[in-house]
Amino acid sequence: MTAAVIINQAFSGLTTAVFLFMTAIGLSLIFGVIRVLNFAHGSFYMLGAYLAYQFTVYLGSSNLGFWASALLAAATAALVGLIVERTLLCRLYGKEELLQLLFTYALVLIFADAVKAIWGIEQVSVSRPPAFSGGVNFAGAVVPQYSLVVSVICMALVLALWVMIQRTRIGRIVRAAAADREMVRALGINVTKLYSSVFAGGCFLAGLGGALVSPVTAINLGMDADIIIASFIAVVVGGMGSFWGTLLGSLLYGQVLAFGILLLPQFSLFAVYALMAVVLIVRPHGLLGVREAARA
After folding, report:
1. What pLDDT band is residue 294 in, cutting at 50, 70 and 90?
2. CA gap 27, 33 in Å, rounded
3. Rounded distance, CA 131 to CA 38, Å?
4. I need a labelling partner for 273 at 20 to 30 A (CA). Which of 63, 109, 227, 255 fits?
5. Contact present, 81 and 202 (Cβ < 8 Å)
6. Measuring CA to CA, how many Å separate 165 from each of 244, 252, 282?
């Protein structure tokens, strides 16, 4: 096994982790604050990918057209998420988890039918922005420029989210709501607006992840199921509701999958599930998660 092969696989795993983190962190934030396991989160990722395709049809596949399409797709996904949360999901707050899970699963079916009705069942694709269509030679390994750019965007997003959560008033409210929602309500903070903002923000991140992944993968009806399974694994491994845990879980998922494909292709997915099983046995609350008893 050469150094170039190892570098290629490591960067492939990093790229997978980047796209996964954008979706998984939204899922983790929604659960941490609203306490809803949003099974339909992958649908917003799929919606972002299809919307990015549609917007590039209107705006063109130039550099400006692609980035504008990605932002518009993410914003539209956030708007759809806000409408869903305000009109439907808010009625289930405080209800049994099973009802929430059944409702979000119903959303998966609704989104799938809506996508099928609008875009059909054929795969579609988006071209990479022309400025980043080449590759960069690194120690004998050719790394796609677009993947490098998206990795930088993700790192900037990680820092921006961390600063917002740790250093701003909004972030302090979000952390307080994740720790004790009743206390936040007693302090006079509008919990309704907080929940709506967090849910829309999570959908924005999912939509952005879907839009940015559109040039490197086929856009199809099954992509929502793939990403939601991967997101749950990353969140469970890292720790439900943990920011850095979600990042760590995404990185571990990407690397285990990439090197599993290289070393044991037929067992690559088994390796990822085995990682989750081991973590659940050793630390049921995740590598960087906090026990529920400790939250109270």
Report:
1. very low
2. 10
3. 36
4. 109
5. yes
6. 12, 23, 29
Distance CA 8, CA 25 (A): 25
The candidate with the shortest Cα–Cα distance to 214, out of 119, 143, 142, is: 119
Question: How far out from the chain centre does Cα 253 lie?
Answer: 13
User: Phi-psi bin for 123: left (phi > 0), alpha (psi -120 to 50), beta?
Assistant: beta
Give SS3 for 23: helix
Strand partners, 135: 144
* Residue in the block written with tokens 């995404």: 250
- Return the axis-axis angle of helices 268-282 and 243-263, rounded to nearest 10°: 140
- Identity of the amino acid at 58: Y
The DSSP line for 223-248 is: HHHHHHHHHHHHHHHH-TT-HHHHHH
Instruction: Output the pTM of the full model.
Output: 0.90
The CA distances from residue 11 to 17, 80, 147, 218, in Å, are 10, 33, 9, 20
User: DSSP of 97-161, one letter per residue?
Assistant: HHHHHHHHHHHHHHHHHHHHHHH-SS-B--PPPGGG-SEEEETTEEEEHHHHHHHHHHHHHHHHH
By the 10 Å C-beta count (0-12 exposed, 13-18 middle, 19+ buried), 21 is classed as buried
Query: Using CA of residue 271, residue 273, residue 277, residue 282, what is the dihedral sign?
Result: positive
Q: What is the mean pLDDT of the chain?
A: 87
DSSP 91: G
Please state, in angstroms and rounded to a whole number, the distance separating the CA atoms of residues 93 and 215.
Answer: 37
- Give the span between the Cα atoms of 74 and 148, in whole angstroms: 20
Contact 207, 45 (CB under 8 A): yes
Written as six digits, the tokens of 153 are 């965007």
Query: From its phi and psi, is residue 239 left (phi > 0), alpha (psi between -120 and 50) or beta?
Result: left
pLDDT tens per residue, range 110-129: 999 999 999 999 899 899 89
